[in-house]
Amino acid sequence: MPWTFLLVAGLLEVGWAVGLKYTEGFTRLAPSVLTVGAMIGSFVLLAQALKTLPIGTAYAVWTGIGAVGTVVIGILVFGESASPLRLACVGCIVAGIAGLRLVPA
To answer: Are residues 37 and 69 in contact, defined by beta-carbon separation less than 8 angstroms?
Structure first.
């Protein structure tokens, strides 16, 4: 269950990172409320995962999911660059996440 908490926490991190773009500096109410809600949910689920998982592993996986997910949304939704080098760097993050999940802590 802690890995599920961590996965959902990472996905919520993607949500709040992307949501920040829509808050326009927290001047728009609805996006701001949703973004703050995603932040709180992400932190609560990360805290639940940390009851069992090592902090170094959990934090690295959490930020990695957030980073990769935000880059993918940036490419698909905001038209950011999908250059081969950029995708290779994202692949390195994904490999790191997988490695941390597969290697015993």
So the answer is: no
Q: How far apart are CA 93 and CA 63, in angstroms?
A: 10
d(Cα 12, Cα 19) in Å, to the nearest integer? 10
Half-sphere exposure for 10 (CA within 13 Å, toward CB)? 22
CA neighbor of 14 nearest in space, from 51, 82, 63, 81: 63
5-40 pLDDT tens trace = 999 999 999 999 999 999 999 999 999 999 999 999
Q: Cα torsion for 62, 65, 70, 72, to the nearest 10°?
A: 180
Whole-model pTM: value is: 0.88
- Taking the CA atoms of 58, 4, 93 and 46 in sequence, report the sign of the dihedral they define: negative
